[in-house]
Amino acid sequence: MRPKYVFYLAVVPAYRRYCIEVLSESCGDEVAFYAGESHLDETVRTGISERYVSRVRNRPLLRNRVLLQTGHLREALSAEVCVIDLNPRSLTAWMLALLRRLLMRRTLAWGHLYPRAGAESRSAPVRVLLRRLTAGTILYGYDSVVPARQDLPRKPLWVAPNSLYPKGTLRAQDGKRKRILYVGRLESMKNVQILVQAFIQSKLWSDGMSLDIVGFGSLEGNIRKDVESSGIRDHINVHGRIDDVESLADLYSESLFSVSPGYVGLSLTQSLGFGVPMLYAKNEPHAPEIELVRFAGTRDFSPSTVDALSEAMVSFAEDLRRSPTNRDSLAQQIQQHYSAESMADGLLRALRGEPMDLGLDGWPSSRWSGK
């Protein structure tokens, strides 16, 4: 039996696991997911078992500038609804959008409204064209709704808020609060290379604080060398990759705050979901998750330099010790609006063509504190 709903995507990273599980439980055999092993950026990989995500072949072309996918295209073409990447670098997304339009079958584009460079980037109009070929757009965040409406006023929109964990795992836990935590990829665009030096300069380590770095990427070796030569290696822990939610929850429970020295992404949702405030770089090309700064529990710093980050870390630590954040409240807001269940609900509504109750500003009509 061919599936009614098909997601044909470049990759499905490990952090999509819980959302995929919720959606699969809701739809059963009616939904199928297809994705390749790695994206054009090979650090972005599929991390979901083949029980949920069947593999296709990803073929980088034109010196890694565009992506062609092969395999399971018949299922994607014949499905009642097919969800494709909102990514103009995917030749397969264009092909599916065009062919299914000719076949008069419903296709939805899912992803970031604009690249991180924003609406003024050269590729932004191309994304609008790809959206124009589809029956609607599924966005990662509520702040994207208004500009999406302005680009294509008559095109249906849904929001599947970019989320990580089920409601039951999102909670604040008590701990010693002696860590400063970074969770994310170890790549240059994340500015993680300034983090170790900023921590050394802050001298927070002399007060018993540790810096904990969780993640993987091309800079991991350099970061480990920096730690070894820092003179305070007993105060800096490079954990590598951690996917287990309970292990991450334990680290967050002992963290005074988390830090994002580069652009903000899902690490903000994760940190606030565990009730931990975040210090983030102000002038970076943030992902849609930056909309969560409307909640309490965040502070920015500028410019993105060692000196500015060091000073901001000291100031944030002092203020949090003097006036602690209501961590339970932070976690509850994420639990209510940015859980795996919330994301799956947005996707399910889009698949079924059910409208979402979004106000003129793009946010749900039933608002929450912090807006």
Give the tags.
globular, 371 residues, alpha/beta, 19% strand
| Low-pLDDT segments | none
Walk across the major sheet and give the strand order: 3-2-1-6-7-8-9
What share of the residues lie within helices? 25-40%
SS field, number of helical segments: 12
Helix-strand pattern, N to C?
EHEEEEHEHEHEHEEHEHEHEHEEHHH
Structural class: alpha/beta
How many DSSP-defined strands? 15
**Shape, principal axes of CA atoms:** globular
- Give the distance, in angstroms, between the N- and C-terminal Cα atoms: 45 Å
Rg, alpha carbons: 21 Å
User: What does the main sheet amount to?
Assistant: 7 strands, parallel
Give the overall pLDDT as a whole number. Answer: 94
Strand content: 15-25%
Question: Quick summary of this structure?
Answer:
The chain is of the alpha/beta class and 371 residues long. It contains twelve helices and 15 strands.
Account of the 3D structure:
- By secondary structure, the chain is α/β, with parallel strands linked by helices.
- The chain is built from twelve helices and 15 strands.
- Strands 3-2-1-6-7-8-9 form a seven-stranded parallel sheet, sandwiched between helices. A six-stranded parallel sheet has the order 12-11-10-13-14-15, with helices on both faces.
- Helix 1 links the parallel strand 1 and strand 2.
- The radius of gyration is 21 Å and the shape is globular.
